[in-house]
Amino acid sequence: ETGVTQTPRHLVMGMTNKKSLKCEQHLGHNAMYWYKQSAKKPLELMFVYSLEERVENNSVPSRFSPECPNSSHLFLHLHTLQPEDSALYLCASSQDLGQTNEKLFFGSGTQLSVL
Amino acid sequence: GEDVEQSLFLSVREGDSSVINCTYTDSSSTYLYWYKQEPGAGLQLLTYIFSNMDMKQDQRLTVLLNKKDKHLSLRIADTQTGDSAIYFCAEKSGGYNKLIFGAGTRLAVHP
């Protein structure tokens, strides 16, 4: 148990659906991240939030919309996805941004399949 | 540009040592990390090394860093079946906490 919980664990959706991924951390961390892990590419950083403010949007298409209502919760809203968006979406948190040695704590991920 | 490379597969016999290798490109990286991902789980920090160190040992794990060649390795002594997982090398690059991950090395341990 890493202290970072993601739901759902698995999600199958059609290209016209709208769904949301949820992440919750119980570690008192101030920074949260979304990563995409697929068979074709290593871990890709998608979004970074620090104290509920987005600090990086790594050229992610607008069909992915993050939301961070407080420092413990992070959402990824999905709409009109493409089959190539099928991947494992991992949430992570760390104590703060900008620390010299900052350790990431990952959730177990949401395995997304887009039909 | 930033890039981290690893071999994709490694197969070892139970009880032998495993050595997983990684090369990186950013010479200014301050910390380098090894993460482990077991089936159906997220990544878990295994160990890390500061860039001014050559070696770090933590129980069965030994990390070696050759900064000149930008080469990092993870040695697992007395490899067990529970060590079967994907191992990711990562370097801390750029501002805040941007980690650049390799593609991961899948370690298979057989009897």
Task: Describe, in short, the structure shown.
The complex is a heterodimer of chains A (about 120) and B (about 110). With about 120 residues, chain A is mainly β. Chain A is about 0% helix and about 55% strand.
Largest sheet of chain A: 7 strands, mixed
Taken from the alpha-carbon principal axes, the silhouette of chain A is globular
- Shape descriptor of chain B reads globular
Beta-strand portion of chain B reads over 45%
Number of H/I helices of chain B: 0
Q: Biggest chain pair contact, residues each?
A: A-B, 29 and 23 residues
What does this 3D model show about the protein?
The complex is a heterodimer of chains A (about 120) and B (about 110). Chain A has strands spanning about 5, 10-15, 20-25, 30-35, 45-50, 55, 65-70, 75-80, 85-95, 105, 110-115. The mean pLDDT of chain A is about 90. With about 120 residues, chain A is mainly beta. Helices cover about 0% and strands about 55% of the residues of chain B. In chain B, the strands form 2 sheets. In chain B, strands 2, 4, 5, 9, 10 and 11 form a 6-stranded mixed beta sheet that branches. A 5-stranded antiparallel beta sheet of chain B has the order 1-3-8-7-6, with no helix packed on it. In chain B, a hairpin with a 2-residue loop joins strand 6 (about 55-60) and strand 7 (about 60-65). Chain B is globular and about 40 Å long. The interface of A and B includes residues 6 and 102 of A.
Give the arrangement of secondary structure elements:
The complex is a heterodimer of chains A (115) and B (111).
Chain A: E1 4-7, E2 10-13, E3 18-25, E4 31-37, E5 44-50, E6 53-57, E7 64-70, E8 73-79, E9 87-94, E10 105-106, E11 110-114
Chain B: E1 4-6, E2 9-13, E3 18-24, E4 31-37, E5 43-50, E6 55-58, E7 61-66, E8 71-76, E9 85-92, E10 99-101, E11 105-110
Parallel strand pairs in B: 2-11
Antiparallel strand pairs in B: 1-3, 3-8, 4-5, 4-9, 6-7, 7-8, 9-10, 9-11
